[in-house]
Structure formats: C-alpha cells, structure tokens
Amino acid sequence: MSVQGQRAAAKAAEQSAEWNADQARKQASYEESVAQKNMRRERENNRRELARMRALGARSGLAETGVVSDNLIEASERHQTEIDDIWEKASTQAKQLRGQAQMSLWEGKQAKQASKYQIYGTVAQGVGSVASTLNKMKPAKPTPPVG
To answer: What is the dihedral of CA 118, 123, 128, 130, to 10 degrees?
Structure first.
C-alpha cells in the first residue's frame, strides 16, 4: 500500500511540475506577444508625432535641415529607445519564465527520483519486517543439557 501511495505521489509531483512548466512557457509567449503589439503601437504613435513635427515645420516655412532635422532625428532616436526598452523588459520576463519552466521540470524529476528511493526504502523495510516475523515464528532449537 505504501509503495503504491509513493508512486502516485511521485507521478502527481511530476505532472504538477510539467503543468507549471507549460503555464510558465505560455506566459512567456504571452509577454512577448503583448510586447510586440505595444511596440507596433509605439511605432505608429512615433510616426504620427514625427509627421506632426514635419507638418509644423513646413507650415512655419522651415526646411528639414539644421535644427529641424536634428530635432526630428533626436525624437526618432528617443522613440526607438522606448521601443527597445519595451522589448528588453518583455524579453527579460520571458527568459525568467522559461527559466522557471526548466526549474519546475527539474524539481519534478528530483521529486520522482526521491520517491523511487523512498519506495526502495519501504520495500527493504517490508522485507526486513517479514524476515523478522518469520524468524520469530521458527520453533526454538532445543538447547543441549549442560552437565
């Protein structure tokens, strides 16, 4: 009975670890997809802002040279840095989640291995108990008379 319970516990621990790992991988993928959507949105917003800046400059009669050009380049670089930051954050979170997935699988394997050793110990204890019981049931050898 005890061995069967230990086997069931080992299997449950391993299945739980696999489920946890799967959930962590799904969350990592979700984080990356959200980041990609946010990056697209940010790029669209940046294009609109740069277009407004160009239109403002054109209405003012300014050519896209010198300070106007420098401002556009600076704004573009700032926006690209924001986009890069979005991806860096999501990528780091995704890596951490995938690392957690790997750790969960490793822990599940360790739990399964530990359970095997517990099973071996339980079997050995059972065998020892049976042997002890059998030994007690043997008829005692008569002792030769001293004399």
So the answer is: 140
Q: Which residues contact 119 (CB under 8 A, 6 or more apart)?
A: 3, 6, 7
Between CA 116 and CA 5 the distance in angstroms is: 12
Does the reported pTM lie above 0.70? no
Could you read off the pLDDT of 97-126 as tens digits, one per residue? 999 999 988 888 888 777 777 777 777 777
Which residues span the domain enclosing 91? 2-129
Please state the domain count of the chain.
Answer: 1
